[in-house]
């Protein structure tokens, strides 16, 4: 079990690095992933997105890392993967914090779409997921933002009920799509622009938005689309 989850953690970390390279080159990492995966059956590259969270992927690779160290075995690959996966999530959390500091809006609202630690296979388990890390950061702020929450299966989060997407994004200055649940795939720009506030930061961590260019065409909207360098906020 430890080796299996550590292997996936390494794959996730590498996939996220590929996403960063693609974004820097102005390329969509999904095009690269499809070419690699379809062209070579031996290669199963994961989708670039957030780090390896949840009750197992956050714990098991670290457990193997510590156990190997106790045996005197150096594991630089696994160590780099663990650090990279943490950074993949915290970089998104930092982006939200920096945006809120920049706009200095009184009583801002942050909408989190996808509260579970993973979307596929679907689960209602929120332990150790990106929503938890983002929530912790927001909770530590002097002025805590209001929250809008939506998840297809997790109906409550830290005592707050999950609502539909339209109610979650209503009045929001930040909209973060945090899991790859199938129900979140194919969201339209209109679903996010209608009722949300300006300025607006949209974080699409899983290529969920069907028409990202429509978001960029709207005034006062910034888009962070992980692993996609074909769309960029002017």
Question: What's the quick description here?
Answer:
The chain has helices at residues 2-25, 29-39, 54-57, 60-70, 76-103, 130-140, 165-169, 189-193, 212-216; strands at 109-113, 146-150, 156-157, 160-161, 174-177, 200-204, 221-225.
Walk me through the structure.
The protein is an alpha/beta fold and 234 residues long. Helices cover 44% and strands 12% of the residues. It contains 9 helices and 7 strands. The protein has helices at residues 2-25, 29-39, 54-57, 60-70, 76-103, 130-140, 165-169, 189-193, 212-216; strands spanning 109-113, 146-150, 156-157, 160-161, 174-177, 200-204, 221-225. The strands form 2 sheets. It has a 5-stranded parallel beta sheet with strand order 2-1-5-6-7. Strand 1, helix 6 and strand 2 form a beta-alpha-beta unit. The protein starts with a helix and ends in a 9-residue tail after the last strand.
Number of helices: 9
Question: Could you tell me the radius of gyration in angstroms?
Answer: 18 Å
Query: What is the beta-strand fraction?
Result: 5-15%
If you average the pLDDT, what whole number results?
94
Low-confidence stretches: none
Q: H/E order of the elements? A: HHHHHEHEEEHEHEHE
Strand order in the sheet with the most strands: 2-1-5-6-7
Helix-residue proportion: 40-55%
- Cα separation of the termini: 45 Å
For the report, how would you describe the main beta sheet? Answer: 5 strands, parallel
SSE class: alpha/beta
Shape: globular
Number of DSSP strand runs: 7
Topology record:
Blueprint lengths: L1 H24 L3 H11 L14 H4 L2 H11 L5 H28 L5 E5 L16 H11 L5 E5 L5 E2 L2 E2 L3 H5 L4 E4 L11 H5 L6 E5 L7 H5 L4 E5 L9
Parallel strand pairs: 1-2, 1-5, 5-6, 6-7
Antiparallel strand pairs: 3-4
Helix pairs in contact: 1-4, 1-5, 5-6
């Amino acid at each position: 079990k430890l080796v299996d989850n550590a292997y996936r953690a390494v794959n996730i970390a590498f996939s996220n690095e590929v996403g960063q390279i693609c974004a820097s080159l102005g390329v969509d990492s999904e095009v690269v992933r499809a070419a690699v995966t379809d062209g070579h059956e031996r290669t199963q590259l994961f989708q670039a997105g957030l780090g390896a969270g949840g009750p197992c992927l956050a714990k098991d690779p670290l457990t193997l890392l510590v156990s190997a160290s106790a045996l005197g075995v150096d594991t630089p690959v696994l160590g780099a993967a663990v650090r990279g996966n943490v950074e993949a999530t915290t970089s998104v959390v930092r982006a939200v914090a920096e945006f809120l500091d920049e706009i200095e809006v009184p009583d801002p609202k942050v909408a989190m779409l996808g509260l579970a630690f993973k979307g596929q296979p679907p689960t209602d388990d929120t332990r150790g997921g990106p929503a938890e890390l983002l929530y912790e950061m927001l909770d530590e702020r002097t002025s805590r933002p209001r929250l809008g929450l939506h998840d297809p299966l997790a109906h409550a989060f830290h005592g707050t009920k999950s609502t539909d997407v339209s109610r979650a994004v209503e009045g929001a200055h930040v909209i973060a799509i945090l899991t790859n649940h199938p129900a979140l795939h194919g969201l339209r720009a209109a679903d996010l622009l209608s009722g949300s506030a300006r300025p607006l930061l949209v974080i699409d961590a899983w290529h969920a938005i069907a028409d990202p260019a429509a978001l960029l065409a709207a005034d006062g909207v910034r888009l962070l689309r992980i692993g996609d360098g074909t769309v960029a906020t002017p």
